[in-house]
Amino acid sequence: MEKFTILVVDDEPANIFLLEEVLYNYNVVSVKNGMEMFDVLEKTLPDLMLLDIMMPGIDGLTLARQFMIYSPGMGERSLFLSLTGY
Question: Which stretches within 1-86 are classed as H helix?
């Protein structure tokens, strides 16, 4: 059985570490910003994206909007969850 792929986008290394530890049963791909996220999305489409809302540059909500605009149809397969520690 193929593992679900979860894309974690967060600028805080501690949050990335924690999520990778908690989600060890899944294929977790972690990046630090939106530009890295779109690089990953050129190669793979995750089943779930965990997006930090409060990031420098492009925030998680903007990333979700951009994904839906520039990747029509792909968003039908992926779920988003945006969160922040603030």
Answer: 13-22, 34-41, 60-70
Count other Cβ atoms within 10 Å, centred on residue 56: 8
SS3 49: strand
* Alpha carbon distance 49, 51 (integer Å): 6
DSSP one-letter code for 10: -
Instruction: Evaluate the CA torsion angle 74, 65, 50, 11 in order and state its sign.
Output: positive
pTM of the model: 0.83
Average pLDDT of adjacent 10-residue blocks, the chain of 86 residues? 90 94 96 92 88 88 82 62 64
